[in-house]
Write a structure and sequence with these properties.
Largest sheet: 7 strands, mixed
Strand content: 35-45%
Structural class: alpha+beta
Order of helices and strands: EEEEHEEEHHEEEEHEEEHH
CATH topology of the largest domain: Nucleoside Triphosphate Pyrophosphohydrolase
Organism: Nocardioides imazamoxiresistens
Number of strands: 14
Protein name: NUDIX domain-containing protein
Oligomer: single chain
Number of helices: 6
Radius of gyration: 25 Å
Shape: elongated
Keywords: Hydrolase
Family: Belongs to the Nudix hydrolase family.
CATH architecture of the largest domain: Alpha-Beta Complex
Length: about 300
């Protein structure tokens, strides 16, 4: 049995990943003379909730406002002979690790708490971490091995609104009503069909009419379901979290009730433009469009 003084420490950390990089903190020289990176986080204050502690620590070490989930993983490390506060101790570290995220428009990381245990904060490529290019504490690799993005399934309804189509040749060139994703939306700058998520208890046809009105200012009469499209991928959601996302898209035929020029009604949302777009431009690849649009035009 070790004769060294015993020290037990409970700390909370966050795994924050986006766009192929992980948010890490570099340990200060007073902690280790070698370059060594760890997850942002730290010790719990007496009586402090672990989720509050990790949010506080992430801000102090990176300057970023994080959100964390309710679930966590706990790692235990017995470190006899560890160097703590200027002397050797028999250390026992309990580490509570949450999955977290920060807003996509967050500033670059910076250390807020000076003279602490962190000297630098940065987004580090995951490939460099796994390849050992960036030296990390073992907890980082353990947490990444155990982490899996939360699953999210979203049912959405979209409108296929065309004018000048074969059913209405007198209207001129064949055009489709599209909206452009803003910086706050998924795939910024790409064009998609007007529409969005179906709220709980909301009939999908009513959801389509509401979303078209909010995104384009156009009132439409909603017709039959043309088809169902789905997409599945792992990526960064608009709010900054990495998700295993499955989107189910109900595609409705719709026609405008009046000759209104499309315009964005809901400002500062996920749509920054709305327009009638020639179908030929979509099919020729002139515009960056979501796969849902191509699928709908092929129906």
């Amino acid at each position: 049995m070790s004769s060294l003084p015993r020290r037990q420490r409970v700390a909370a950390y966050a795994v924050i990943v986006r766009d192929g990089a992980i948010l890490l903190s570099r340990l200060a020289a007073r902690v280790t003379k070698d370059e060594l990176w760890t997850l942002p986080g730290g010790g719990l204050d007496h009586g402090e909730d672990p989720r509050d502690a990790v949010v506080r620590e992430v801000y102090e070490e990176t300057g970023l406002r994080a959100s964390v989930g309710d679930e966590a993983r706990v790692y235990s490390a017995h470190l006899p002979g560890a160097w703590r506060e200027g002397r050797r101790v028999d250390a026992h570290a309990l580490r509570i690790v949450y999955s977290g995220h920060v807003p996509t428009d967050s500033p670059e990381p910076r250390v807020v708490e000076v003279d602490g245990s962190t000297m630098e904060a940065a987004w580090v490529p995951l490939a460099d971490v796994h390849a050992g290019v960036v030296p990390v504490v073992p907890m980082v690799l353990e947490a990444l091995a155990d982490a899996s993005p939360p699953r999210r399934q979203r049912v959405a309804a979209y409108a296929v609104v065309r004018r000048g189509h074969a059913e209405d040749p007198a209207a001129g060139a064949d055009e489709v009503l599209l909206t452009r994703n803003s910086a706050r939306g998924p795939h910024p700058g790409s064009w998609t069909l007007p529409g969005g998520g179906v709220e709980h208890g909301e009939p999908p046809a009513l959801a389509v009419a509401r979303e078209v009105r909010e995104e384009t200012g156009v009132e439409v009469e909603v017709g039959n379901v043309l088809g169902v499209h789905d997409t599945h991928f792992v990526g960064t959601a608009p709010h900054g979290a990495v998700e295993d996302f499955h989107g189910v898209h109900l595609l409705y035929a719709a026609r405008p009730l009046a000759d209104v020029e499309p315009h964005v009604v809901e400002l500062d949302g996920t749509t920054d433009a709305a327009a009638w777009v020639p179908v030929a431009d979509v099919l020729d690849g002139v515009l960056d469009v979501r796969e849902t649009v191509r699928y709908a035009l092929g129906l």
